[in-house]
Design a protein that fits this description.
Residues 350-444 are annotated as: Disordered. The chain is of the alpha+beta class. Helices cover 41% and strands 11% of the residues. It has helices spanning 44-47, 51-64, 96-101, 108-127, 165-168, 186-190, 197-212, 222-231, 239-242, 247-256, 267-270, 274-277, 298-308, 310-313, 320-327, 339-357, 392-410, 425-443, and strands spanning 7-8, 11-19, 24-30, 36-43, 74-79, 83-89, 130-131, 140-142, 151-153, 160-161, 364-365. The longest helix has 20 residues, at 108-127. It is globular. 39% of the residues are buried.
């Protein structure tokens, strides 16, 4: 099989912006235009047998890119001999809550404005047949530092295409446990099948957070948090934090946090709620205001946020590590000393370091999108691109093993609601605890 044609890379490498579960994010500067992008860089060694993960993210982004100004756009994707690259909008305006805390004042109408914009984008995503599955403040970024900058929904690494339209979605429910625990809906933990309603639940949590500075299900342990989420156990307390929030806003939060996903409103429904749809803003008047204006929420919001730092504490996710461990042949046997999981994490760290060393301007690239067959089926990285003829037999065996591994993956991920895994809630929380411990180690 002839090697794909390679061309000089049209980008040069900028600074490293951050590090995710299995990728690093760097600035990429387009050589001809000088325009800056955020580029997710993934080591190809790490993706061997897991190409579907990147293929899925590309498929999702190709459906929705450039269709809504508040959804991050995938501008380009390509591979070098060593890495895969996905180029996105570079959002330089900071994260949602950092912007709020930097303001001089913050009113309920400001929160409603933000929620309305984000829900409009969520409605667009859902109309394209996509469920995001990891909506949280950290994934809501501002395009620029300007006061009127667009807020953007980012990070579609856990998103999925929900085929079959509204009427057929129940036959394509997802059963994978994933997301950020404090924002995950009850049905995710219960593994009864989930879909677009999980994004509405997450938006309910985000709305609560925007009004108070902390999340509704915060508990002393992840187990207690999960139990609270499943039971829908939350209150609008302490009173001093919620006395300045209107009953209309609380009603909206309750609606989004409907335990039964079949009774939970859709994103489109939420946009019709009077808290978002009314021409007149809802608020509690400030008793010290001579004109009866709204009460400033910022003092209490900042106090709660700074005291607990909840969203930073909860910034870990049950992410690709679970799926990678399955593909590595270890299943979810984290209780057996976690040796294989630790080995995988060590490999991830090594491969990410290798990825960071490559300079794009010195590399030749293959543009994968040139051979795409359609918007929902982008070409996957070609495992045979750099395989010599003398290794063809080994490559064939490898591909056969990859197919077997993918079939194994399907038993644990994104299958119909009828595929009930034998992994109970205790094991689900064990996986959460593993990620929690790993996050704490990185912080120290």
């Amino acid at each position: 099989m002839p090697n794909p044609t390679t061309v000089p890379c049209q980008y040069r490498t900028g600074r490293t912006l951050g590090s995710g579960t299995y990728a690093i994010v760097k600035e990429a500067i387009h050589i001809k235009t000088g325009k800056y992008y955020a580029c997710k860089v993934i080591n190809k060694k790490l993706m061997e047998g897991r190409e579907h993960m990147v293929r899925n993210e590309i498929a999702v982004l190709k459906r929705i890119s450039s269709g809504n100004r508040n959804v991050v756009t995938l501008h380009d994707y390509f591979e070098t001999a060593h890495n895969l690259y996905l180029c996105f909008d570079l959002c330089t305006g900071g994260e949602l809550f950092d912007r709020i805390c930097a303001k001089g004042n913050y009113y309920e109408a400001d929160a409603a404005h933000l929620v309305r914009i984000i829900f409009t984008a969520v409605s667009y995503i859902h109309s394209a047949g996509i469920v995001h599955r990891d909506l949280k403040p950290e994934n809501l970024l501002f395009r620029t530092p300007a006061e009127d900058a667009d807020i953007m929904i980012a990070d579609f690494g856990l998103s999925r295409v929900m085929e079959g339209g509204i009427g057929g979605e129940k036959l394509n429910m997802l059963t994978e446990v994933c997301g950020t625990p404090g924002y995950m809906a009850p049905e995710i933990f219960k593994k009864t099948g989930h879909g677009k309603p999980v994004d509405v639940w997450a938006m309910g949590v985000i709305t609560y957070f925007l009004l108070a500075g902390y999340t509704p299900f915060d508990r002393e342990s992840q187990q207690a948090e999960m139990e609270a989420i499943i039971a829908g156990d939350y209150k609008f307390e302490p009173h001093e934090y919620w006395a300045n929030v209107s009953e209309t806003a609380r009603e909206f939060v309750r609606w989004c946090l409907t335990i039964d996903p079949n009774k939970r409103p859709t994103a489109e429904d939420c946009l019709t709620h009077k808290w978002l749809a009314s021409a007149e803003p809802h608020f509690v008047p400030d008793p010290e205001s001579p004109t009866g204006g709204p009460t400033d929420l910022l003092p209490h919001v900042k106090k709660a946020f700074n005291a607990k730092g909840l969203w930073r504490k909860a910034a870990f996710s049950i992410r690709a590590l679970n799926r990678m461990t399955v593909l590595a042949g270890t299943g979810y046997a984290f209780s057996n000393g976690h040796a294989e999981a630790q080995k995988l994490r060590d490999n991830v760290a090594t491969y990410k370091e290798e990825s960071e060393k490559e300079k794009m301007e010195d590399a030749s690239i293959t543009h994968q999108h040139e051979s795409d067959s359609g918007p929902s089926s982008p070409a996957s990285p070609n495992p045979s691109t750099h395989t010599s003829a003398k290794n063809s037999s080994a490559a064939g065996k490898k591909q056969q093993e990859q197919r077997r591994q993918k079939e194994e993956l399907k038993k644990e991920d994104d299958i119909s609601v009828d595929n009930q895994s034998n992994q109970g809630l205790e094991n689900d929380m064990a996986r959460t605890k593993l990620e929690d411990d790993d996050e704490k180690k990185r912080e120290t």
